[in-house]
Amino acid sequence: TLSIKLPKRFVALLVDVAVVNSMIFFLTEAALWIIGISIYDEVKILRETYSLECFLLVGCVYSLSFECSKYGGTLGEILFGYTIVRLDEKKLDPITALIRYLSKVITFVFLLGIPLLWVFFDEHNRPLHERVSRTKTRSQRRMWSLGCEAITSFLRRGSGGAKGSRTPDLL
């Protein structure tokens, strides 16, 4: 059966794409401010011309720095309670993270996401880039997950907490 986690993983990916695009925009704008506004049009043309290259470079630095950190995942993955680990449950090293990133880029950018259909045939619902890099996504309870659980529990119970509930009262 297909895991319900796949839509959350896709939304986590969209969060990461938004973060990388924001980083590119703000880095470019900071460079424009430092250099001077008079060459704005030329830099804008460069930014539009090399947008894929900028995205791939900044995305690579972003992915590697977060996935190899103590958090074990990008901001989108952390937000939804995921950690990326090797198959032996150890933290990602830079080479493994780079292989994971490059295979993800090939999957999404150059093969139009078609290899993502691999999740329907893999017994653990792992996309092709996880199989290539020998990694897996482990679901953990993180800030956002705990916050969502607390809000959901609160809304189910009303304003007061149920006796013996796992989540604390919010009031």
Give a nutshell description of this structure.
This protein has 171 residues and is mainly α. It contains 7 helices and 2 strands, in the order ααααβααβα. The longest helix has 31 residues, at 5-35.
Envelope shape: globular
Largest beta sheet: strand ordering: 1-2
As a percent range, the share of strand residues is 5-15%
Major beta-sheet overview? 2 strands, antiparallel
Uncertain ranges: 167-171
Structural class: mainly alpha
Order of helical and strand elements: HHHHEHHEH
Q: How large is the radius of gyration?
A: 20 Å
Q: What's the helix count?
A: 7
The whole-number mean of residue pLDDT values reads 77
Helix content: 55-70%
- In whole angstroms, how far apart are the ends? 39 Å
Number of DSSP strand runs: 2
Describe the structure.
The chain has 171 residues and is mainly alpha-helical. The chain contains seven helices and two strands; from the N terminus they run H-H-H-H-E-H-H-E-H. A two-stranded antiparallel sheet has the order 1-2. The model is unreliable at 167-171 (pLDDT under 50).
